[in-house]
Amino acid sequence: MKIDILTLFPNMFDGVFNESIIKRAIDNGNVEINLINFRDYSLDPHNKVDDTPYGGGVGMVLTCQPIFDCVKAIRSNDAKVILLTPSGITYKQKKAYELAKEKHLIIICGHYEGFDERIKSICDMEISIGDYVLTGGEVPAMVLVDSITRLLPGVINEESHLEDSFNDNYLLDYPTYTKPRVFEGMEVPEVLISGDHKKIAQYRQEESLRITKENRPDLLDNK
Ligand code: ADE
Q: What is the model's pTM?
């Protein structure tokens, strides 16, 4: 998969893409990630990419020209263009699975007060990572890339995401433990040491349900 990220702040991605699983996925050729500064496409003599809003208001608004020209230059027939904005649809694991099947993603990160509305005309979807406002789309872009990359074939052991929270099973993850058996007086539940696989499966199912009821009762609402 190829992922092009349009951003005014490409350096923000350094740490996240240069460590751990994402780095390995890039090195192994599972994913190609290009950071593109759309300021480079500005036709303004001072490389401006924003301007004041029509109708008045605070802050600056990203202009159409640099983003339109940048997308035109890199768009392939297969590309899906994603605009990151707090007013997009809320990002969920299901969308990560859908996007992981694509060949080419173009992710546009906003900054400042917002975008010229006409930028939406060249986008296939608008995504928000949650009901809070960030300083820009860079952190949301990292969230998308991370959640999608780990689902690409060969990146991590597939079994480990079949059991993820938010899959079709709609329950949150059950608790896990490792050695030692007792840490600061806290013991690993006896059932996990029993070797009885049926009992362990039942314990995990019950714990998943308990945690989901406690932390995310909304996930159970439609079930
Ligand atoms: N830009 C600013 N806040 C955002 C959010 N919550 N999701 C996506 N893009 C954003």
A: 0.94
Catalytic residues: 86, 113, 150, 164
Which residue has tokens 């991370």?
146
Length of the chain: 223
- Which pLDDT band holds residue 51 (cuts at 50, 70, 90)? very high
**Could you tell me the fold of the domain covering 2-158?**
Alpha/beta knot (3.40.1280)
Cβ count within 10 A of residue 22: 21
SS3 61: strand
Question: Whose C-alpha lies nearest to ligand 1, atom 4?
Answer: 86
Cis peptide before 180 (omega within 30 of 0): yes
* Nearest to 108, CA basis, from 69, 147, 78: 69
Assess whether the C-beta atom of 140 lies below 6 angstroms from ligand 1: yes
Tell me which fold the domain 165-220 belongs to.
Trp Operon Repressor; Chain A (1.10.1270)
What does the domain layout of the chain look like in residue ranges? 2-158, 165-220
Nearest to 148 by CA among 11, 39, 17, 51: 17
84 within ligand 1 shell (Cβ under 6 A): yes
Cα–Cα distance measured from residue 189 to residue 186, given in angstroms and rounded to the nearest whole number: 9
pLDDT of amino acid 167: 74
137 lines ligand 1 (CB under 6 A): yes
Q: Would you say residue 168 has pLDDT above 70? A: no
